[in-house]
Structures are given as C-alpha cells and as structure tokens.
Amino acid sequence: QVRLVQSGGGIVQPGRAHRLSCQNIGRDLDRDSLAWFRRIPGGEREFVAGISWLLGATKYADSVKGRFTISRDDALKTVYLHMESLKPEDTAIYYCAVVYSATPDYRQMDYWGEGTLVIVSS
Predict the structure, then answer these.
(1) How far, in whole angstroms, is CA 31 from its chain's centroid?
(2) For residues 120 and 91, what is the distance between their CA atoms, to the nearest angstrom?
C-alpha cells in the first residue's frame, strides 16, 4: 500500500516562502494523482492543490492560487508544496494525499499522510 511521510512543518514569518515535502515509502505510484489539503484551527480539512498523473495537470484552491505551487518528482516518489507570500490565515495542518486516478477531481482520496503543522506568525 501507499505510505506517505511528510516533512517541512514549522514556524514561518508572514510574507516569507516555505516548502513542504511528502514522500511515498510504500508501493510505487501507478496512475496515482497527488494533492495537498489543510485543516485550519477549528476548521474542516479543505483542498489546497492537486497534480494529476496524466500530464501533471495542476489545480489550486482560490485562496492559494498564485502563491502556492505543487510539483512531483516521481524518481524520488515525492510531492512538494512550495508556498510563497504566506499569510497568518495559512496557518494549518497540511496533509498530502493520493488518489488512484489519472485525471481526478480530488473529491475522494485513497491514502493520507499524517499531516504537518505550519504556523505563519511574526
């Protein structure tokens, strides 16, 4: 099965950039698309960004569009979330996830990472 190990959480100053990583140490991905979700304090888990297996098409939530970039390195079995111009409202637990679909809508995911906390504060 897929097993996702996350890294990169921490405290970041507003306006700065930061990068999260998520490595699959389980089975190799085969037509699996990847995504990042987040849960803000007191809120529900919400979609942030996704990247498809087919052609690496990306999709972003309006709240992060233009600031966050999702990418994948299949050789390293890793997905990244590069975050720029961070705001205090970006403070959340960030989760990576996998869905067995080449062209997903990210409404349902098959595997989840444990999450990592990012705090945006001065």
Answers:
(1) 18
(2) 5
pLDDT tier at 93, thresholds 50, 70, 90:
very high
11-25 pLDDT tens trace: 999 999 999 999 999
- Whether 86 and 72 have beta carbons less than 8 Å apart is answered as no
Residue 20, Cβ density class (10 Å: 0-12 exposed, 13-18 middle, ≥19 buried)? buried
pLDDT at 26 > cutoff 90? no
Across the chain, the runs of DSSP E, i.e. the strands, are 4-7, 10-12, 18-24, 33-39, 45-51, 58-60, 68-73, 78-83, 92-99, 111-112, 116-120
